[in-house]
């Protein structure tokens, strides 16, 4: 500590603690609420909505497909581009082709749901079945980062790092306050020990396995 400017350390920690808490205000509440939701998955039983859309495939795409049925998979990029433009569907989970029936089937995973597109190039018709979740299902998948995309994955990682910094700066500020330091350390130790004891004593686990 001889090489550390304590005043600068405490001042910087206080500023980080305050501004990180304000920056994370919404996300911290969101992750806490969604954590409670994930601990009660029975709340999500009826939190789904199903729907279906029937639409025409662009005539130009149908013409191209019928002209090259034997090599239809070469049109996958154009098919995906059409669905991305029309319905904002971009993350393909799987894509299948039935040559005999000139069918292309694409599965899209979504947070709290899915979209399944079936393109019939014989009739020129698109059938899009989809499922969306309600608010609780949605925030549950946002909490897990399930099918939420790369950008949201970064949101989770960055917010987690900021929460660690928030906790560490809180401890630094605590040690600055001599009157409350001992009680704060005691509460910290209790906060560490309590979940460990609960895990060891009451959480199901297998033992005696080498």
Automatic annotation (TrEMBL):
It holds the Pfam family PepSY_TM_like_2. The keyword Membrane applies. This is Peptidase. Keywords: Membrane, Transmembrane, Transmembrane helix. PANTHER family: INNER MEMBRANE PROTEIN WITH PEPSY TM HELIX. The chain crosses the membrane at residues 16-38, 151-175, 182-205. Signal peptide: none annotated. It comes from the Bacteria.
């Amino acid at each position: 500590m001889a090489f550390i400017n304590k005043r600068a350390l405490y001042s910087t920690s206080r500023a980080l603690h305050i501004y990180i808490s304000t920056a994370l205000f919404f996300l911290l509440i969101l992750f806490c609420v969604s954590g409670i939701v994930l601990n009660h998955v029975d709340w999500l039983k009826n939190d789904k909505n199903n729907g279906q859309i029937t639409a025409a495939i662009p005539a130009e795409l149908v013409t191209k497909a019928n002209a090259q049925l034997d090599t239809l998979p070469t049109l996958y990029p154009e098919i995906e581009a059409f669905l991305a433009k029309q319905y904002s569907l971009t993350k393909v989970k799987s894509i299948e082709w039935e040559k005999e029936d000139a069918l292309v089937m694409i599965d899209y995973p979504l947070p709290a749901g899915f979209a399944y597109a079936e393109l019939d190039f014989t009739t020129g018709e698109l059938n899009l079945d989809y499922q969306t979740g309600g608010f609780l299902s949605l925030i549950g998948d946002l909490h897990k980062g399930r099918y939420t995309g790369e950008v949201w994955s970064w949101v989770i990682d960055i917010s987690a790092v900021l929460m660690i910094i928030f906790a560490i700066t809180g401890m630094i500020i605590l040690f600055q306050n001599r009157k409350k330091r001992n009680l704060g350390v005691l509460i910290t130790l209790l906060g560490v020990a309590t979940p460990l004891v609960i895990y060891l004593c009451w959480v199901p686990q297998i033992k005696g396995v080498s």
